[in-house]
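Thread: Newbie trying to understand structure tokens

Hi all, I'm a second-year student working on a class project, and my supervisor (Dr. K.) asked me to get a predicted structure for one chain before our next meeting. I've only ever worked with sequences, so writing a 3D structure as a token string is new to me. If someone could post the tokens and maybe explain what I'm looking at, I'd be very grateful. Here's the chain:
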Amino acid sequence: MVAPVAGVLLGTLDFIWIKYVPFPFGGLGNSIAVWAVVAFLLTFRNRWTAAAGIAGAIVCLVVAVPSYYLAATLIQHDDPANMYGAAALLWMGLGVVAGAVFGAAGVLARTDGPLRTAAVAVPGAVLFAEATMQIMRIGNPSYDTPDLIAYAAILIVSGVVLTLLAGRSWSQRGLALLLALPLTAAGHVLLTLTGFR
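---
Reply by user tm_fold:
Sure, no problem. This is what the structure looks like when written as tokens:
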């Protein structure tokens, strides 16, 4: 029951956050990286097996999508068909992929093994990757430069703090921050390939 409840809360609170919290903090509600981090934290904080963690993360993210659109329907009277439209189905598909990757990372980050430190680096890396995309928009007349800088700074600080909290020792935290650099580059490429620019 934890995963679907978390999904309902994520989708509902995300819409409320976007609607009522001003930018730059309001931008976190529109962040795909934040949703990925939620999947990581869900499995990192729960003592699930790898299979259960991955399934739980996927369920959370998939359920969050119609919950988001339902909140939009109830709060600002959007079309209820958005809950099962093409955009919702696309986001649910991405939720399956993100849930598998970040759910697995959450399990690995709390499990002894050679991949533990790399897994600790994963949530910070996705936040850094989104920050990189914001920085690359600087100079684009469609965006306000101070807003981009402020939002990128929030993402970077959040990524560092999350890495420090997920690590067990200072040496692991430092190594995880170093490993986050190549993971950030990979994340940036993947976000670009999926159309997030």
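A couple of things are worth pointing out once you decode it. Residues 143 and 194 are 21 Å apart (CA to CA). Residues 2-193 form one domain. Feel free to ask follow-ups in this thread.
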